[in-house]
């Protein structure tokens, strides 16, 4: 597939949305309240209504919906962006996050691999793919443990993997 001529035009606005999303994802005392998120969502939806082709605003709507835990709506937004701009990795990264939240780890893996086909240097998608692989490994080890006790070395590995997963969730953009 030839490169999209509009890609540079789309990346600059998406970077602004990414910056906002990353700041929100860092949480802490700077994390917006639900009311502030709702206000941001209304603003972004007005931007989309005024200019339906505004990929930045459409992406931001999806990010805010994720922050509001309105995952089905966010998934629909990111899937629409992924269909319209298949060369962009960020919608696929967020689709993967939503799949992982819902426990659909194989679907998350596929979405991240798609993101990496779109941009093999996409660091966040690569990190998230490693995280999903670890989640799949934990799932497999837990299934093995359900059939009988694990050998001590594997039990320690499972506990270490669980600790790693607890220390850093998948990251959205």
Strand content bin? under 5%
Low-pLDDT ranges: 1-28
Helix share, percent: over 70%
Would you count the extended β strands for me? 0
Number of H- or I-type helical stretches: 8
**Biggest sheet descriptor:** none
Q: Determine the structural class based on helices, strands and strand pairing.
A: mainly alpha
Description:
- By secondary structure, the chain is an all-alpha fold.
- The protein is built from 8 helices and no strands.
- The chain has helices spanning 7-25, 34-50, 55-67, 71-84, 89-101, 105-118, 123-146, 152-167.
- α3 runs antiparallel to α4.
- Residues 1-28 have low confidence and may be disordered.
Please provide a brief summary of the model.
By secondary structure, the chain is mostly helical. 75% of the residues lie in helices and 0% in strands.
Notable characteristics:
mainly alpha, 0% strand, 173 residues, disordered N terminus
Topology:
Elements: H1 7-25, H2 34-50, H3 55-67, H4 71-84, H5 89-101, H6 105-118, H7 123-146, H8 152-167
Helix pairs in contact: 1-3, 2-3, 3-4, 4-5, 5-6, 5-7, 6-7, 7-8
């Amino acid at each position: 597939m030839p490169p999209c001529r509009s890609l540079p035009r789309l990346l600059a606005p998406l970077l602004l949305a990414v910056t906002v999303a990353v700041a929100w994802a860092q949480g802490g005392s700077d994390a917006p309240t639900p009311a502030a998120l709702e206000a941001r969502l209304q603003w972004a939806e007005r931007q989309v209504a005024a200019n339906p082709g505004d990929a930045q605003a459409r992406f931001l709507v999806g990010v805010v919906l994720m922050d509001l835990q309105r995952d089905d709506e966010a998934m629909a937004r990111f899937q629409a962006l992924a269909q319209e701009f298949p060369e962009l990795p960020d919608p696929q990264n967020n689709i993967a996050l939503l799949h992982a939240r819902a426990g659909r780890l194989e679907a998350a893996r596929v979405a991240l691999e798609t993101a990496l086909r779109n941009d093999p240097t996409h660091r966040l998608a690569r990190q998230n793919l490693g995280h999903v692989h670890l989640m799949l490994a934990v799932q497999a080890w837990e299934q093995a443990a359900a059939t009988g006790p694990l050998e001590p070395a594997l039990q320690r590995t499972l506990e270490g993997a669980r600790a790693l997963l607890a220390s850093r969730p998948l990251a959205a953009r």
